[in-house]
Amino acid sequence: MSSKSRQSRKEREAFFSRPWSGPNRHYDIFKEGGIALLVVTVLVVALSALFSSPDDPALTFKGWAQNDGNTLYATAVAELAGTSDSAGYGPPYNSNSDGVSLGPLFLQKWGGVTHPIDAANDFVITPLSSQVEPNDVSAAIKQWNAATPDQQAKWAGDYDTALNDQAGAAGDPTKVPAGDYGPVPDLAKGVVAMASTGAYDNAMTGQGQFFQTDQTKQLLLMGDGAYLDDAATADNLQGNTWGMMNEAGSWPGQQWLAFASVWYQLPAFNAPDDATGITRTLTDNADVIIAAILVLLLVTFLFTPYIPVLRDLPRWIPLHRLVWKDYYTKHGRQTT
Amino acid sequence: MSHGTQAPAGADFEPTTWTGAARRKWMRTLPPEKLLPETQPSYVASWIYVFGMLTLVAMIIAIASGVVLTLGGVQWFHESSVGKFMNSLHYWSVQLFFLFMVVHLWGKYWMAAWRGKRALTWATGVLAFLTAVGVGFTGYVITTNFNAQWIAFEAKDVMNAIGVGSVFNVTNLGQMVTFHVAPLPIALVVIVGMHVLLVRKRGVVPPLEAIDPDAATVVAPAESAEVAS
User: Fold this and answer.
1) How far apart are the C-alpha atoms of B119 and B122, rounded to whole Å?
2) Which stretches of B73-111 are DSSP H helices?
3) What's the domain range around B138?
4) Taking CA atoms, what residue in A is nearest to B57?
5) Which of A143, A175, A256, A282 matches a 20 to 30 Å C-alpha distance to B75?
6) Across all residues in chain A, what is the average pLDDT?
7) Closest residue on chain B to A11 (Cα)
8) Of A43, A55, A318, the CB nearest to B96
9) pLDDT-flagged residues of chain B (< 50)
10) Residue A243 to residue A231: CA distance in whole angstroms
């Protein structure tokens, strides 16, 4: 050891920032780049040829109607009753709730309603009205449109409750007890019938226009029912099963989102449905709370060079000695 | 008006225009021998150093394949085997890009590569990673398949929760295509460009425990396995 080589932190920083005055080696950045380009190109071509790439077809309303018609039926009823997720979402789709919050901050409300969605009309009445319907469905549309909002809500609410009564119909339209449900059953039936032919896909994707590149409405509707959710669960795509970084099938997915996905695995953000109190609040507002955590992480990440402990870990856990093993062996080491 | 005036070489001249001032600033900051050196410090001799370059070339392949995909349109790869292969090239180059980038990032962390006024180099690396996450995400939601449906459906809740859903609508294919092919990749290229130029400007950081060659009158390598303070 030599005290002559002692350098203060400031001196070390000055040394690190000075142009290097020690030994050099030959280096050709273009050669390195050329070889790297060749190697990575070969690797990419080989992986593409061997494994191709994921492309599971998008779900359709036609497929939904044909494979799980009852849940599409129930979703149509929920849209009419205003009990679906979309109907009660809040901004930016409607004003039917405040949305999630970060404590007293309702960021979701700041942008206002920019993509208005009227669930009953956009998802049921308008698509059904876009084509010639059987007489019972046509009559149901007329009856619905002629009714007051209160009457519509009463019909749809009563039918929605009866349809989803787990001790009764449990989602099966054929088992709903008789009652005054107005045109609601015929409207829901009309949606399923229209969807089973593919016409509902056309109505929803076109939105009555020739050019259409905004899938907001059809995607929200698709997510209101169990069909999309069940398909995602089957592929381990739910948030609490690392779904943020998974993709359908056996593909690598977005592994780089691990730093975000990990938070969704915590029990605090996965409270059971009947939970109350803080875990309920955390789970209900998980998206915005986790986003806030990620912002903090980002700031930490950006300012790592100035954060004690974080900036010191590489000195305390000297993995760098693996990187510079040869150099240290040849030229010695100095700890500061 | 002067004719045939030879432009002064290097940084050793008195500029008379904004252009000249900019050129002098550039030449002083990044002279050609610094920008494209033929030597590196002898400690730049580990496989970990390769991952920066690997990240860069994977990005170039991703951009090239992405440009071709864009020319075919977002649904091309569903219908054409050439499009599918191009999509695969794009997919795997992105996967490798992130793999290399994460290795590069961890490597630089454990080398404490921000030392010696290199904090901005670190910060541009962090921003490049985050921008790349944005590019990758918008890429997934424009694949017009089941992944796109589910990811857009889930991600909209996050965007809405943080208050940006009203202007950044992940369920709007047209808007997401625009973000994926123009502003985000352009931002990524600019940030990566800054990162690379900063690396060239500052040079590769010396080893954490390197002995200062100018201060080491000191210790012959043989007698110092470790020179402690």
Assistant:
1) 5
2) 76-79, 81-110
3) 45-205
4) A37
5) A256
6) 93
7) B212
8) A43
9) 1-2, 4, 218-229
10) 12
